[in-house]
Design a protein that fits this description.
Elements lengths: L1 E6 L5 E5 L4 H11 L5 E5 L5 H12 L3 E5 L2 E5 L10 H4 L7 H10 L1 E4 L13 H9 L3 E5 L2 E5 L8 E3 L5 H11 L5 E5 L5 H12 L3 E3 L5 E5 L7 E4 L4 H14 L2 E5 L7 H9 L3 E5 L2 E5 L9 E3 L11 H8 L5 E5 L10 H6 L3 E5 L2 E5 L4 E2 L2 E3 L3 H12 L1 E2 L1 E5 L1 H5 L5 H6 L4 E6 L1
Parallel strand pairs: 2-14, 3-13, 9-10, 17-18, 21-23, 22-24
Antiparallel strand pairs: 1-24, 1-25, 3-5, 4-5, 6-8, 7-8, 10-12, 11-12, 14-16, 15-16, 18-20, 19-20
Helix pairs in contact: 1-2, 1-4, 1-7, 4-6, 5-6, 6-7, 8-10, 8-12, 10-12
Bound molecules: ligand EPZ.
Length: 419
């Protein structure tokens, strides 16, 4: 069990290089299984979830190796269609291997995915879409056996909710299917655009990625390519909050402000100065933070649910009362009790969190219970008086590459303790 020891109340200042996006890299890695040629995926973050995806690819018979933020995948000799339960359980995004394996092989065996406990995380939209493309799914012993002997065919799939994972799964299943697939009410997150652009680079015929209607015309095969993963907008939001909660200023290199309009707006409402450039965001929090009236998490381009917890750390010290409404997941306030242990004044009721800013937070020993909630606790510890311990670092390592090294480089008193 690893933890972080943090001595807070130090203003952060300096330049941070931004990592590649976890939530794009994982879908792109699944997409590599569709390619009959070598893929070199650059700007891949060194995260436990990325390494888990590489283990799945190796298990499928693909040659997959990670070196210096580049993953090389050769799926030409892919010879397996089953993902073992222990690998499926490691993360939520393992479910997007369903579409990739079915697209490539026409059959697949896997069990429900794992991932952070944010409330029920059903995959009904994923499975319903696969059935509309001709897949027969039988569930036995907690696993799913998916078959489509004649190969997948295109379909018109109307999503009841713009699910990111379901949109990704359908795109992955459709690129080698017979005929045309139209996804309506598709997710429009930048990670969807990145996946579509990657698949097109491999020879797929896709248009409308990043809009609510995505059209995929099946092709016979995909070749390899070299592609660079987009920057991680949620990690960028997390570091913006680190500047806000410590009253510091950070220059986040590699960030794409076009992906972060709703997040930037919240920090400006909080009384931070934010300057944006093509590939970086500069934030300064020299003035006292102000509460923000109501922040509602929404599908893109609305305020991202993944930024809810990181931003809450800054709001905990913002003068006045802020309200957050979590509309995407039903159990995404598990970090609140831990924040209260540090002196935060936060009440939650269902989807709503009411945050009354306090003058200071106090160091404490707190426990990460999921990825973004864990990041929130690190930020709160940075902005607290005294020393904190943040336990269950494994959650944070799923999404943040060397978080202590990055934060120490801009002035944080933070170290990893291996107990
Ligand atoms: C992706 O999860 C991200 N994960 C999540 O980031 C992110 O919070 C989420 O999208 C929303 O943006 C990855 O990309 C690996 P959804 P996903 O399908 O695909 C319900 C992080 O911290 N739903 O858009 O699982 C679902 O329960 C993670 O990096 C169904 O009901 O999200 C949820 O309430 C956390 N049935 C809502 O839709 C389905 O078949 C949004 O889920 C699928 C989803």
């Amino acid at each position: 069990m690893q933890k972080l020891a943090i001595r807070g109340a130090k203003r952060l200042s300096g330049e941070i290089p931004l990592q590649g996006a976890k939530n794009s890299a994982l879908a792109l890695l699944a997409g590599c299984a569709l390619c009959s040629g070598e893929v070199r995926l650059k700007n891949c973050p060194a995260l436990s979830d990325v390494f888990a995806a590489c283990r799945i690819l190796n298990k499928l018979g693909c040659k997959c190796s990670y070196h210096d933020h580049c993953v090389s995948v050769d799926a030409r000799d892919m010879n397996c269609c089953a993902v073992p339960e222990e690998l499926m359980r490691e993360m939520r995004s393992s479910i997007v291997f369903l579409g990739a394996i079915l697209g490539r092989k026409g059959e697949c065996e896997l069990s429900p995915p794992g991932g952070c406990e944010l409330g029920p995380r059903p995959i009904d939209m994923h499975l319903s879409a696969m059935e509309q493309m001709g897949v027969r799914i039988s569930e036995e012993y907690g696993g799913m056996c998916c078959e489509c002997p004649g190969g997948l065919h295109g379909a018109r799939i109307d999503l009841g909710f713009p699910s990111v994972g379901a949109t990704e799964n359908i795109m992955l299943a459709a690129v080698l299917a017979k005929g045309e697939t139209v996804i309506t009410n598709a997710a429009t997150e930048p990670e969807i655009t990145d996946l579509g652009n990657f698949l097109v680079r491999c020879g797929a015929r896709i248009r409308g990625q990043g809009t609510p209607t995505v059209v995929i015309s099946g092709v016979d095969k995909l070749h390899g390519c070299e592609y660079s993963v987009m920057p991680d907008r949620i990690v960028a939001a997390t570091f913006m909050s680190a500047a806000a909660v410590t009253g510091g200023e950070l220059d986040i290199k590699g960030a794409d402000p076009r992906h972060m309009r709703s997040v930037i707006s919240v920090f400006q409402q909080m009384n931070c100065s934010v300057f944006t450039y093509d590939d970086r965001i500069f934030i300064s929090a020299k003035k006292p933070l102000c509460a923000v009236n109501t922040i509602r998490t929404m599908p893109y381009p609305g305020f991202p649910t993944d930024a809810q917890a990181p931003v809450m750390a800054a709001l905990a010290k913002a003068a006045g009362t802020s309200v957050m409404v979590e509309n995407i997941f039903s159990n995404r306030y598990r970090h609140v009790d831990e924040l209260v242990r540090m002196g935060a004044d936060i009440k939650t009721e269902g989807k709503v969190a009411v945050i009354r800013g306090v003058k200071k937070l106090c160091g404490a020993t707190v426990r990460a219970l999921d990825l973004r909630g864990g990041a929130c606790l690190v930020l709160a510890a940075l902005g607290a008086q005294g020393e904190s311990r943040v336990e269950n670092l494994c959650y944070i390592d799923r999404g943040y590459e060397n978080i202590e090294t990055v934060l120490r480089s801009v002035g944080a008193d933070i170290k990893r303790i291996k107990s």
